[in-house]
Design brief:
- The chain is α/β, with parallel strands linked by helices and 200 residues long.
- It has one domain (6-199): P-loop containing nucleotide triphosphate hydrolases (Rossmann fold, 3-Layer(aba) Sandwich).
- Helix content is 35%, strand content 21%.
- It has five helices and seven strands.
- The chain has helices at 36-43, 85-100, 120-131, 148-162, 181-199; strands at residues 6-12, 25-30, 62-67, 70-74, 105-113, 136-141, 170-172.
- Strands 1-3-4-2-5-6-7 form a seven-stranded mixed beta sheet, sandwiched between helices.
- α3 links the parallel β5 and β6.
- The longest helix has 19 residues, at 181-199.
- The protein binds guanosine-5'-triphosphate and magnesium ion.
């Protein structure tokens, strides 16, 4: 799979607007500011295809990217305290609407900041992915902010806190330095292959 062949497809503000799923898709979920858009850019070898900002809550729509004929989906971040109630409502409608659809979910990357223990919302997300039996991986972000030793320690603590099913992949990444990016590309490639073999 060639991650260099990437382009923006479309942004959707309500789940009713989402196009039917016609090919495997890889989704990126996580709290606001965890680094979803940065990770997408890094995976796609691009600087600013997905918009990154210092302001949390930047990605308020579901954004689709075409990567070598597959869909990569940047989901709006959860847990940003300073947004209006109406926005939180819109967010839940979008995310729940998205996951409730009959889509070809090849892999959901559940992003968690490696510096912190998982929040209640992070645990909800993982619980949902487990109970829905969706193929998912935990992607720890911003590894460059910790030493190698601290990374290993946090990885073990987060794994324990999430009570992950056996064999759930966990990747330590840094969009800043590039750690774990090739490993994640390989994981995505094999998840897509598996999805194609079983769903199409
Ligand atoms: N040091 C470091 N900073 C990062 C990394 N990834 C993202 N950031 C920074 O974290 C902030 C948020 O990154 P985004 O990629 O916009 O996060 P997001 O999850 O898409 O945020 P929303 O769109 O608000 O949900 C930006 O200031 C990024 O530069 C990383 O691996 N290392
Ligand atoms: Mg974003």
């Amino acid at each position: 799979m060639n991650f260099h062949v990437a382009s923006f497809k479309a942004a959707y503000g309500t789940s009713a607007q989402l196009p039917a799923s016609a090919r495997p898709e890889v989704s990126f979920a996580g709290r606001s500011n965890v680094g979803k858009s940065s990770l997408l850019n890094k995976l796609m070898y691009r600087k600013n295809l997905a918009k990154v900002s210092q302001t949390p809550g930047k990605t308020a729509t579901i954004n689709f990217y075409d990567v070598d004929g597959y869909d990569f989906v940047d989901l709006p971040g959860y847990g940003y305290a300073k947004v209006a109630k109406s926005e939180i409502h819109r967010w839940s409608e979008l995310i729940e609407g998205y996951f409730n659809q009959d889509r070809a979910f090849a892999l959901v990357a559940s992003l968690i900041d490696i510096r912190h223990d998982p929040s209640a919302l992070d645990r909800n997300m993982v619980e949902f992915l487990k109970s829905a039996e969706l193929p998912f991986a935990v992607v720890l972000t911003k590894a460059d902010k910790l030493s190698r030793q601290q990374q290993m320690k946090q990885r073990a603590a987060i794994k324990k806190a999430l009570d992950l099913p056996k064999g759930t992949p966990m990747v330590v990444t840094s969009s800043e330095k590039g750690d774990g990016i090739d490993e994640l590309r390989a994981l995505i490639t094999s998840a897509i292959k598996e999805c194609e073999e079983t769903s199409f």
